[in-house]
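Subject: sequence -> structure tokens, single chain

Hey, anyone have a minute? Need the predicted structure for the following. Not urgent.
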Amino acid sequence: MTQPILRQMSRDELATVVDWAAAEGWNPGLDDVVPFYETDPEGFFVAEVDGRIAAAISVVNHTPGFAFLGLYICHPEFRGQGIGFALWNHALDHAGTRTVGLDGVPDQQENYERSGFVRAGETLRYAGVIEGRPHPAVRPAQSSELPALAALEAAASGVEKERFFTGWLADTAARKTLVLDRGEGPRGFATLRECRDGFKVGPLVAENPEDAFDLLHAVAALTEGAPVMVDVPSGNEALGDYCRELGLEVPFSTARMYKGPAPATGRHLRAVATLELG
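Reply:
Had a minute. Here:
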């Protein structure tokens, strides 16, 4: 086998890798490529063998102290040859001394531990049809509010992701963000993202369970009865319990792991924006 070339990924190649993610059953959004890539264009990597992409990974630097690893895929034809692991090590160099987070499938947890990652919890995906229920205090987000919404998410997750949310929270044909405003400005919000199959809600940030439930039903009203998926991290039991009350199933879970100190999460209830960028 020719020695793989480890290099940065182009935006066009990211579109191909997102298609790989769809083939793996990860169900990416219809409009993920641009906000992913623009968060950190230097944070996407491929291993190239004889002119073909053999493996891919992202290590996106959100802040001087935090990065997130995702999109770790090796093409089936190249698995078992050490190509993916070589790319893994190459890409982690991009994070420097930053803490690196990831959401990994549980059966790979021991492999991640060997690279210095420590389990900090799990993320459960809840999936099913949610009754749409518009709410008088829920309205579309305004572009001028996006920095404040990003700050709300940072207070909840413990990590600022300003560059990512600049694109992610802006409305497109495939993504809509709604805010909960009882007359004093946004106190919570949720983004609905159309995917290859159904919709995903993320992020969702709310001060209390009732606000979270109102936002969940309000964004579900935009889906016309299609399936909805919500990725709920550990520590958000009220939101997870409510998803189960609604009859949503848990098709899979991921282990949330960190290499370096884990961020301190806030008191808000939340759902994860995307398992690829945190």
